[in-house]
Amino acid sequence: MTIFISKLSEGNTTDNNNQSVSITIIDNEPLPMVSISINTESVYDYDPDVTITATSTIASQEDISVIVSTSGTATEGIDYGDISDITIVAGSTTGTSIFDPTKDTVNEGEEFAVISISSVLGADLSTSEATSVSIIIKEDALKTATLFTEGTALEQDAITRKRAWLNVNSRRNKNPDQDPNQPLNEYYVHPYEQMNVHKAQSFSNGGTKLRGKDKLIHIIDRGCDTRHAMFDNKIVHNLEEDGAFDNDGEVHCNAVSSLAAANGDGDTGIGGLITGVAPEAGLVLSRLASRREMAEDIDRAKELGAVVSSNSWGFTLPDGNGGMSDFNFKEFQDSRIAGKTNSESLVGLGDTAADVDKYIASLKNFQKTGVIVFAAGNGKDESDVNLAAAMPELFPELKGAWIVAGLVKFKGDSIDSAVESEFTLEGNKCGSSKEYCVVVDGMDIAAAGGVKDGNSGYIKASGSSFSAPMVSGGIALLSQAFPNHTPKQITARLLATANNKWFAAEGYTEFGKYGKGVRHGYHSTWGHGLPDFYAALRPVTSDTHPETMLYTGSSIQSSGDSGIALSSSSITPSSSFGDSIIQGLMGEVSYAYDALNSGFKYNMEERVDMSNNNAPTIDLTSELSKLGLNLNPAKLSWKDNFNKVLSKLSEMKKLRTSLTVGSSSLPVQSFFGSNFDSSINLNDYKTPYLESGEGGIGISAVYKLKNSRLLIGMTNPVDQNIDNTIGVRKTLVTSLEYGDPSNSAITIMSGITEDKDSLLGATGNNAYSFSGSRSDTSFIAFKTQIQLSKDLSLTSITTLANSDMTKPDSSFINSANNVKSTSVSVIANKRNIFGGGNMSFFVSQPNRVNSGDMSIKLSNLADSDGNLTYRNKNINLEPTARQLNYGLSYNKHLNENTSFLIKHMITNNLNHKKSSKKVNSSFIGVKYKHLKIGLVTNPSKNDKSAEALYNFKF
Fold this sequence. Notes:
Oligomer: single chain
Number of strands: 53
Radius of gyration: 39 Å
Structural class: mainly beta
Distance between the termini: 74 Å
Strand content: 35-45%
Number of helices: 17
């Protein structure tokens, strides 16, 4: 900084020519350091965004740019959205970006993404040690709930914009459709949206929306007038003998009923001007009367099939001022007379002890098929919940299918980021009912009112009376979504998924009776929090049950903790099957179960891992092995230099026997090794049951005849230790080689093979494992070789096989029968072309299943006791098309040290799939002395691979 004289004041002041001085200000703060962090370390592919935060140790006077890069097994732009660089604006210490996982339908298993700080710009900063983070992307394949599938965000948004939806919110809402002439008093999140009702209502199954269809809600209240428009086109059972209630200005029943099940269509007002939580549910209406009368009505509601009984009333006492006040559970306990039973103690509030007993018995009986919901009360200064809501504390047999609904007011901007200070208790605290209590914003609600002169009216009201029917409507939705659930299971699900993130739990409810390891925090004021009906429609997990599980036994309960993770259960077909298995399972569903034993459907085709079908069409290593081979061999003969011969057991003039380890039997080696041209690798045309290295210990014999030879061999896998086995299958093979290999020859080979845990290369994992199965394949193969001229030869190979597989152990895979497969290859080779090179033309059909069936067991939805039943699906194993490869290769020695090879192949119907486009594959390789370099391009994901090999012999 420079300070200088800009002006002299008047007087005797003189300038001594020292016009300025400089001062250097040195920062004593350290340079900022930037680190990176995330708010979670793992996500499912359908989960919400993950926030990536860059943090500077100190604020800077200029923007800091954090350049990010990505790596890992997951790919940016495919498995997750593009990640933007992060800017930490001047004066701030943090900046953020978003990691958005991409939902897909391909079972890829767990993948991970690494997000790193590539560089930082601005403020002369540096990076700290925390320069990268890793996020695991899990596969679950579950975006559905039981029988229903979630709607899109646009569908959910459309629900919230319906007229009848908006009308429920009588407090002003900052909504673009809000009447601009109405003042905005305060921001208010719609009470239904606080509970994610709009997301729940977007779920559908075969055109049926999750709106309470075919479910009945029992309402015990006063002032029901079924002439109101909200009852139009709705199933209504009026339990009063005269078919009508006392319509003397009381509108409480209409208001309560409308919030549970008003069927306003949302736009025209037909069926009322508001919509309920379960707008397609029917209603059973009964009068608030004596305990004996209510018991009778509860029994009738159960007979009609009601899934929930909603009670917006409580016990009151005179308050001494001419009014009535809540009578809470604590006050009841304090005023009890010693020696009286619970029923006798309630006589003063109702009828006789016998009437109370009958009422309690009816409640208990109703809970066999329905849930009881009670309002907590409207006394925000009360020390406990209303006595009526807390009856399970007096009669423990009522616990399990009982929910209390408290009254709160929420003033925050977003439920997702809500904090406790944004909630105000407006009624009785949950108190003694805290372990089966939730809270709902029932303040300033618009609801159905009375009917006057034929006109349906509407009111604005507040109270826990309106919290209870909203919960009851939600129970109707859950009952529709989980048709196999008991009322106790529905209750557990609602409580275990309630939104309690906004307060610190004072205790925890264990739901082990209805699931595995599920616990949920509660609070004496807020109970378990706000109901979240969207969360209730998604899988619930726990520390001991972190994923949705599959069970292969007769029941969930008998399986104990032996469930199998859905995410790691898949079928992996080999290319021989093409797309037959995924086509056979298209449209089929099965069920997995969460930690509360709730069944969730999944699409079977998503359990088929087609990654094996992405194998390269040209093998880089195989092509490199051909570089430098002798292109003009001397007189050709049958193969004698067999691989991995441990010992020659005997050697006579015509008969030789050998012991091999870790290789194919000698008939197989000779079949794929004896050829007219060493530049042609017949191993490229092997089948899944005749692969290299298939054998463990093998014994083979070669018997020479006049113009032919007979070969026979057998192999058997050998277990070295628990984790290491030499060989993959048992084989017994014989072949007859006839003719002159230097002119024309034919080979016929036949045999049987036995594979374990696979079928023609197809395998499976966990619930779809092939483990314990045995596949027997009988085959016959033909090879002809003809020398058409001195430099032109023709080779053809044909294989035919039949396979049968036994049922695997503890798997959904059943047996497979009469699986017939074939392969065909024809290769023409011309030597001494274009200056001494070799050119080969070929056409081939890789091994393909032509017919056969596999049976797969599909699980039905378990019943309420967890009993499992299954149905069998027979899959035709013939793929939709036939893969054909056409190609040519050219191999040439330039001199004794240098040679090159080029190859190009055109493939139709890759992996025997009709949907595959025509693809091209190419290879180019060069050998110079001991160095080989090759480059291959294959169709799978624009795959390009390069490899360099250096060999030196001492």
